[in-house]
UniProtKB/TrEMBL annotation:
Sequence segments annotated as region (Phosphopantothenate--cysteine ligase): 15-223
Name under which the protein is recorded: Coenzyme A biosynthesis bifunctional protein CoaBC
Residues in DNA/pantothenate metabolism flavoprotein C-terminal domain copies: 10-220
Biological processes annotated in GO: coenzyme A biosynthetic process; pantothenate catabolic process
Name of the gene: coaBC
Function in brief: Catalyzes two steps in the biosynthesis of coenzyme A. In the first step cysteine is conjugated to 4'-phosphopantothenate to form 4-phosphopantothenoylcysteine, in the latter compound is decarboxylated to form 4'-phosphopantotheine. Catalyzes two sequential steps in the biosynthesis of coenzyme A. In the first step cysteine is conjugated to 4'-phosphopantothenate to form 4-phosphopantothenoylcysteine. In the second step the latter compound is decarboxylated to form 4'-phosphopantotheine.
Binding site for CTP: 104, 114, 130-133, 148, 162, 166
Organism this protein belongs to: Nonlabens xylanidelens
Names of the cofactor(s): Mg(2+); FMN
């Protein structure tokens, strides 16, 4: 019995994870999006399930497969849909991980007919999307919270500020300094920052291995 519980340490836990990009509609055929593949979030969802967790995966547009009997996947498109899905489930969640590359802004007035080509310039007004992670961070009763940060300069300083602002228990910093890290590649280089600003640094490795490091850190903190 002891062996089973050490192999499946998350057996009684519900984990929610956001992943992938979001698509923000401009008109019926166009959107604003980004190059997130959803691979990092999918790898974390599979790793959590392999450790016995019941996983709610809220995925933006992505072709990545995440088949596992313990993964319940909800596909969404926009940041607002992702926000709504998260808040419909967060009250019953033990651990929430926000790996999605959420669009910071969306077109203010998406139109329902295709925009016709006319003048030489076109201006699209954008408005800020809700910050899903910060909205959960601000709750009084909240799950153990894991955020991500992507920085291109003053990495640690910006990451510390983000952790504090969004009230994360752990913040995963994606290092963009490394060419084996980030969007569209199968490897990643991360550092993990806890509430006391302790920093654990990891080597560049496949995203499946990075997912194990992240889940190990979560288990160390919650069990
Ligand atoms: N995030 C979110 N909802 C948003 C924007 C970001 O849940 N509308 C989450 C991301 O999933 C990630 C964390 O917040 O876990 C940090 O995202 P990031 O883009 O690095 O930070 P921002 O606060 O958006 O700041 P900026 O893009 O200006 O660096
Ligand atoms: Ca952002």
């Amino acid at each position: 019995e002891k062996e089973i519980s050490s192999k499946l340490p998350l057996k009684d836990k519900v984990c929610l994870i956001t992943a992938g990009p979001t698509y923000e509609p401009i008109d019926p055929v166009r959107f604003i999006g980004n190059h997130s593949s959803g691979k990092m979030g999918a790898a974390i969802a599979l790793e959590l399930a392999n450790r016995g967790a019941s996983v709610k995966l809220i995925m933006g547009p992505s072709h990545v497969k995440t088949d596992h009997e313990l993964i319940d996947r909800v596909d969404v498109k926009s940041a607002q849909q992702m926000y709504d899905a998260v808040h419909s489930m967060v009250a019953t969640t033990d651990v929430a991980i926000f790996s999605a590359a959420v669009a910071d802004y969306r077109p203010a007035n998406p139109v329902d007919q295709k925009i016709k080509k006319k003048s030489n310039t076109l201006t699209i007004e954008l408005v800020k999307n809700p910050d899903i992670l910060a909205s959960v961070g601000a709750m009084t009763q909240k799950p153990f919270l894991v955020g991500f940060a992507l920085e291109t300069e003053n990495e640690l300083e910006h990451a510390f500020a983000k952790a504090e602002k969004k009230q994360t228990d752990l913040l995963v910093l994606n290092s963009m300094r490394d060419k084996g890290a980030g969007f569209g590649v199968d490897t990643n280089k991360i550092a993990i920052i806890d509430k006391n600003k302790n920093v654990s640094r990891f080597e560049t490795k496949p995203k499946t291995e990075v997912a194990k490091d992240i889940v190990d850190e979560i288990i160390k903190k919650i069990l």
